[in-house]
Design goal:
Serine Threonine Protein Phosphatase 5, Tetratricopeptide repeat
Length: about 220
């Protein structure tokens, strides 16, 4: 049985995860996992939070810890096994192909700054320059889709589909694509995107709610 402090840290961590306050969720769930007796779902939730903040190797370790503690088949173990396989492949690919490129990162940041200021033409120019140097720079592609979405352009969907080719396991890409399609009234396609998110992360409550909304409005 969880101690009072352990339960409170776990409850708080789940709440922060649902609110997409991922850094705080990592801290709370780490405390839960290291306070009192170990419980499998604490490690599963911590793995999800670590994945959200890009700490992929640590996320794999927590998923594997969860699987060792909870070997019985369930939707959670199936999801954990899938994520371990995909994250290991992703980290290996990153290690092989990663090369620091300060120019691309600088252009991406300049584009983001312009986007935050509402300077859409400048943002588009910086993003295009970044993509001309590295066509598969997914962070820039995602922010280009945000820019296109603000301009009311369905090009956002095309950009997100392109991003998904490079990171097919990114729930952020599929979720954003679902939002774009829902706004465009393409509810059947939006439903498919939110279903894809839930396939990758069955505990994503936002995707679940939007899937129900898209299905109701079809």
């Amino acid at each position: 049985m969880q101690t009072t402090d352990e339960h409170e840290h776990y409850r708080r961590g789940i709440q922060l995860l649902q609110e997409e306050r991922f850094e705080e969720a990592v801290e709370a769930l780490h405390r839960a996992a290291t306070t009192g007796k170990d419980y499998p779902l604490e490690h599963y939730a911590l793995a999800r939070a670590l994945e959200k903040v890009g700490r992929l190797e640590e996320s794999v370790q927590e998923y594997e810890c969860f699987l060792r503690m909870n070997p019985q088949e369930s939707q959670y173990t199936q999801h954990a096994k899938q994520r371990v396989t995909e994250l290991k492949a992703q980290t290996e690919d990153t290690t092989r192909s990663h090369r620091p490129n300060n120019e691309i990162d600088a252009l991406h940041r300049q584009g983001l700054n312009a986007l935050d200021k509402g300077e859409l033409e400048d943002a588009e120019r910086f993003f295009n320059q970044a993509i001309s140097l590295q066509g598969d720079h997914v962070p820039t592609l995602i922010d280009m889709s945000v820019l296109a979405f603000r301009k009311g352009c369905m090009k956002a969907a095309d950009i997100l589909k392109r991003s998904a080719e490079y990171q097919p396991d990114s729930t952020t890409i599929w979720f954003n694509l679902g939002l774009v399609l829902l706004r465009a009234g393409r509810r059947s396609e939006a439903s498919e995107m939110f279903a894809k998110v839930l396939e990758l992360d069955p505990t994503d409550s936002q995707a679940s709610s939007l899937l129900e909304e898209a299905d109701r409005r079809r």
